């Protein structure tokens, strides 16, 4: 995976730490360009399919977040964690990761169900029976993957 360079090298997060933040994050903002050429950012929960090098998203089959400027657009997904305003210091302590890649819809039924299982695994208690729900929800649910091409992590520690 390519590391996207940042200007403030003293705040750069090593790749293993950036991947850990991506594994543990709850949600992030997916940024794209819509069919009208307008930028669009939408907060989403996600699952990180680390072996495949993808992020998994879902939502209604129709909607602005899926109206991209081209069939497989480039996109950016940003996760921020451990954010704390440092009063009197005019700054913030934080850890963030940005992922860059290409979006594509999942049309294959079994691949879509596997992706939804990853998402459900983050939201449901272990051992919960989700199969019936997933198969019912699948008819109305779009599954989208972000194939990761580069990652960039950055942090500022509390002093």
Describe this structure in words.
The chain is built from three helices and nine strands, in the order ββαββββββααβ. The relative contact order is 0.26. A hairpin with a 5-residue loop joins strand 3 (27-33) and strand 4. It has 159 residues and is α+β, with helices and mostly antiparallel strands. Strands 1, 2, 3, 4, 5, 6, 7, 8 and 9 form a nine-stranded mixed sheet that branches. It has a single domain (2-156), classed as Electron Transport, Fmn-binding Protein, Chain A (Pnp Oxidase, Chain A). Helix 2 (109-123) crosses helix 3 (131-138). The radius of gyration is 17 Å and the shape is globular.
Helical stretch tally: 3
CATH H level, superfamily name: Electron Transport, Fmn-binding Protein, Chain A
- CATH fold name: Pnp Oxidase, Chain A
Major beta sheet summary: 9 strands, mixed
**How many independent structural domains?**
1
Strand content: over 45%
What percent of the residues sit in helical stretches (DSSP H or I)? 10-25%
Q: Regions with pLDDT < 50 over 5+ consecutive residues?
A: none
CATH class: Mainly Beta
Overall mean pLDDT: 85
- Outline: globular
Structural class: alpha+beta
Rg computed from alpha carbons, rounded to a whole number of angstroms = 17 Å
Put the structure in a nutshell.
This protein has 159 residues and is of the alpha+beta class. The chain is built from three helices and nine strands; from the N terminus they run ββαββββββααβ. The mean pLDDT is 85.
């Amino acid at each position: 995976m390519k590391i996207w360079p940042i200007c403030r090298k003293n705040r750069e997060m090593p790749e293993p730490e950036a991947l850990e933040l991506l594994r543990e994050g709850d949600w992030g903002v997916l940024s794209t360009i819509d069919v009208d050429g307008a930028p669009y950012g939408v907060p989403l929960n996600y699952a990180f399919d680390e072996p495949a090098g993808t992020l998994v998203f879902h939502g209604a089959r129709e909607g602005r977040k899926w109206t991209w400027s081209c069939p497989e657009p480039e996109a950016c997904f940003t996760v921020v964690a451990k954010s704390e305003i440092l009063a009197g210091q005019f700054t913030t302590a934080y850890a963030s990761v940005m992922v860059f890649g290409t979006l594509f819809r999942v049309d294959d039924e079994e691949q879509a169900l596997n992706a939804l299982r990853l998402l459900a695994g983050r939201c449901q208690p272990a051992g919960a029976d989700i199969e019936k729900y997933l198969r019912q929800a699948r008819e109305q649910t779009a599954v989208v993957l972000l194939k990761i091409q580069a990652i960039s992590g950055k942090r500022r520690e509390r002093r």
